[in-house]
Amino acid sequence: MQIGNSEKTYGVVSIALHWVMAVVLIGMYFIGDYMVELEYYDALYHTLPKWHKAVGVILGGLLLMRLAWVYAQPRPLPASGHAPKLTHLLGKLGHLALYGLLTIMLISGYLISTAKGHGINVFDWFEVPALLPQSKERDELAGDIHEIAGILFILLVGVHALAAFIHHFYWKDNTLTRMLGKG
């Protein structure tokens, strides 16, 4: 398998970034949804938010790497098949929306995490500093934005997956198999 993309298929770097980020982001959504319901004395009350924040920082780095890779690599041509031409435009808009919502989640997550004036400790490897002064209002607003963006993101992930299956099973093109490294 090739490292970079070609006009026909995605390379191993694009595929790995896609699937690693997909699995981690879906996990982050469900962990985030679970952890906001925890009681103070629950064993995971302090642990899960620390992990969620640290993984969020790592995802921010992966997003920057992925965007740099996307713009440095050729994008495979649209799959040949019976899909209407409009699906190509909708796919581009969907990807932009996914990247946009992910960016909003990362920024709002940072603003929530640093609202008390403390940085984000990333697994004791390094700390991302709090760049803004402490603010309860910012914490609440960023929390609302983070929650809404997360819900929209996970819904759009579902649409994205459904579209891949429609391409594969209905239009019978290689859109899905290319991202599985078989196309």
UniProtKB/TrEMBL annotation:
Signal peptide: none annotated. GO terms for molecular function: electron transfer activity; heme binding; metal ion binding. GO terms for cellular component: plasma membrane. InterPro entries: Cyt_b561_bac/Ni-Hgenase, Cytochrome_b561_oxidase, Di-haem_cyt_TM. Residues 10-181 form the Cytochrome b561 bacterial/Ni-hydrogenase domain. The keyword Membrane applies. It is a multi-pass membrane protein. It is found in: Cell membrane. This is Cytochrome b. GO terms for biological process: respiratory electron transport chain. Its cofactor is heme b.
